[in-house]
Amino acid sequence: MRWCKPTLPATSSKPKVLASDPNRAHTSDYAFETGQTVIFLGDHTTPDDPGFVRIVRDVLARFHPQLNLHLISAGTKGQTAHGLRSQALMDILLSSRPNWLGLSLGFGDALREPDARVRYEEYLRRKADSDEGPDAAIGPEYRISPLNLGPVEDVGKEPEPQLERLGGFKGDLQGAVSTLLGAGIRPILLTTVVLGSDLSNPLNVTLRAYSRVIREIAAEQGCPLVDVERAFRDVVDRARNYKQSVTLTAPDGSLNPQGEALIARNFLHTFGLLPGPGFRRAHNS
Description:
By secondary structure, the protein is of the alpha/beta class. The chain is built from 9 helices and 5 strands, in the order βαβααβαααβαβαα. Strand 1, helix 1 (52-63) and strand 2 form a beta-alpha-beta unit. The protein starts with 36 loop residues before the first strand and ends in a 15-residue tail after the last helix.
């Protein structure tokens, strides 16, 4: 990965500025200071396609222009925790010294899990077979999915995949976060996305395990946590309750506009700058 050191603006010593909307649903324990710089690394945001960072920037410019934050999108698709901890990237980050570093990691590591990949490919084959069956013409409410049929001993919950890389991911992310905090750079940890609308998808099972580790590290190190995976699961669950389907990502994990908006909203909500998803402003009667 080629990564160029960004030109950072001078930091400001002005006091913290919080959102002033009295009707917001959440008061954050974290706050940006005027003029601070936030660099974003990991999936879903690149210099050429800022993705959810562009939405965050637009919302801040409209509703919180007094913050004057400098948001730098420097991610690359498939970034890993091991890559973050590399000496070359750490040297760049420590010399750049942004105030905050948004880390959207875990997806690239999860895709490298050998067992998860095998299970996912088998899942896609079974799904393709079920879509091509003779009952594909009837509605899903009347269809019995062949994914759930088979010998009695094969029916039941899919076994958990064997995760060979999870321990290394945890060690690399813990080490990187500790180094960053020691240098005065505050990490913001984002959990992973959810693929498609099937939560039993073997890759979603793997991603959930990686998200669990990210939550643990955020709690241990006192870092802000943007719980993307939980927000995505909540949306999928709500849609399923109404017998609907919602998709926020493509099969390769790239976000559609709805997925980008959901991450942006949760990021802003974490810092008390926007109500969380599902919040409704109270109406006076």
